[in-house]
């Protein structure tokens, strides 16, 4: 599978050096950008991948770029820093960077960090897909079915749910059967996992 690495650094020599170090991995597609602004301009059209971001650049800094892509599950970011700029790197990691690497770069360390970033990216993408699938299923429920599901999550019996909703226990059973069918599950535990993945209820209620 092809994987894409974006090198965002205003230093031509640094971009060339990183390109050379990463080229030993035949499955990597490597693209370079001289500025953070140039990268951000193309961001909507870019394939998912790992972004290596220089901290100090003209225009949008590495931190600015990081803040823009922080919530985008298509990208994982690694900060490139000068030797001793650990404080800046820590600040970047608080903003969502997965890691940082100090100049000069060692090939083995760089490749290990990039591989780890791709692993994290794969995990985030899988989680995003799981959440999207769960949300789509939850959205199929009627308001009453959602009320019944909430009651089930809170550990209430059909009888108690019926009392709380002012409906008959038999009606609760019908709503329960309907919601299980819409969620495409056979057990309550599966329904609970979907509800939690969709963010329908706080974790402590599960």
UniProtKB/TrEMBL annotation:
Keywords: DNA-binding, Phosphoprotein, Transcription, Transcription regulation. The keyword DNA-binding applies. PROSITE patterns: HTH_LUXR_1, HTH_LUXR_2, RESPONSE_REGULATORY. GO terms for biological process: phosphorelay signal transduction system; regulation of DNA-templated transcription. Residues 4-118 form the Response regulatory domain. One of its GO terms (molecular function) is DNA binding. SMART domains: HTH_LUXR (SM00421), REC (SM00448). It holds the Pfam family GerE. The modification 4-aspartylphosphate is found at residue 54. Gene3D superfamilies: 3.40.50.2300, Winged helix-like DNA-binding domain superfamily/Winged helix DNA-binding domain. InterPro entries: CheY-like_superfamily, Sig_transdc_resp-reg_C-effctor, Sig_transdc_resp-reg_receiver, Tscrpt_reg_LuxR_C, WH-like_DNA-bd_sf. Residues 134-199 form the HTH luxR-type domain. This is Response regulator. The lineage of its organism: Bacteria, Pseudomonadati, Pseudomonadota, Alphaproteobacteria, Sphingomonadales.
């Amino acid at each position: 599978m092809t994987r894409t690495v974006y090198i965002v650094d205003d230093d031509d020599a640094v971009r060339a050096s990183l390109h050379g170090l990463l080229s030993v991995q035949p499955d990597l597609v490597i693209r370079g950008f001289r500025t953070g602004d140039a990268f951000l301009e193309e961001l909507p059209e870019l394939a998912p991948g790992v972004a290596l971001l220089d901290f100090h650049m003209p225009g949008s800094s590495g931190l600015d770029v990081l803040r823009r892509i922080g919530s985008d599950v298509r990208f994982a970011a690694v900060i490139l820093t000068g030797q001793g700029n650990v404080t800046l790197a820590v600040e970047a990691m608080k903003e969502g960077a997965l890691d940082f690497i100090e100049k000069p770069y060692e090939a083995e360390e760089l490749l290990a960090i990039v591989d780890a970033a791709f692993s994290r990216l794969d995990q985030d993408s899988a989680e995003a897909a799981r959440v999207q699938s769960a949300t789509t299923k939850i959205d199929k429920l009627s308001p009453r079915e959602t009320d019944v599901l909430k009651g089930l999550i809170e550990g209430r019996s059909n009888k108690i749910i019926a009392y709380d909703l002012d409906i008959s226990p038999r009606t609760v059973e019908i709503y329960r059967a309907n919601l299980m069918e819409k969620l495409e599950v056979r057990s309550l535990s599966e329904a609970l996992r979907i509800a939690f993945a969709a963010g329908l209820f706080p974790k402590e209620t599960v």
